[in-house]
Write a structure and sequence with these properties.
mainly alpha; 8 helices; globular
Length: about 180
């Protein structure tokens, strides 16, 4: 019942609009600041590799695979991350503010928040994950008051046009499937 409310109710769409605007502004300003003021992830990456999250009882790495990813891929490619992180933050923010590809923006925002958490930065990440989760739970209703209202039907039409319609089961054509005896 609660999921139906979040996914279909116009008031829930209005509430998620407010969440989107807040989240979007947070992401967009973070990305814009990094793009305009200069951003170098090298120090952050070195700190995350040099002082990873460890279990206090066993002194074992909590996220050994993530630490290895940072050490062997992210750190050697820090110049790439210096572009991808701020640009990603800016695009996530714009997507959420405009309500364009809202669920994609919310997903990648949460993804980046989790990456920052795995690296040991708590900051506002749990709060942003919680709010992003609400936006994701709202599904397409989260973009009802945004460009998704117009964009999603066009994308569905393009996706269905590319398929072979005479082999598509009735459930994908918007009709009820026939009952089998």
């Amino acid at each position: 019942m609660m999921m139906k409310f979040w996914r279909e109710n116009v008031y829930a769409a209005g509430f998620t609009l407010l969440l989107r605007l807040y989240l979007g502004w947070t992401w967009m300003t973070a990305g814009w600041h990094k793009l305009t003021a200069g951003f170098d992830a090298t120090g952050f990456l070195k700190g995350a590799v040099g002082k990873p999250i460890v279990d206090k009882a066993t002194n074992e790495l909590v996220y050994p695979t993530f630490t290895a990813f940072l050490e062997h891929f992210a750190l050697p490619n820090a110049k790439l991350f210096n572009i991808v992180i701020p640009l990603g933050e800016l695009l996530i923010g714009l997507g959420l503010i405009l309500g364009a590809l809202t669920l994609t923006a919310a997903f990648f925002g949460m993804f980046m928040n989790f990456m920052f958490l795995f690296a040991g930065t708590v900051s506002t990440n749990p709060w942003l994950i919680l709010l992003g989760g609400i936006v994701l739970a709202a599904g397409t209703n989260a973009g009802r008051f945004g460009f998704d209202f117009y964009l999603m039907p066009l994308l569905r039409k393009l996706l269905h046009r590319g398929g072979n319609d005479h082999h598509t089961p009735n459930v994908f054509k918007g009709t009820k499937p026939t009952a089998h005896a």
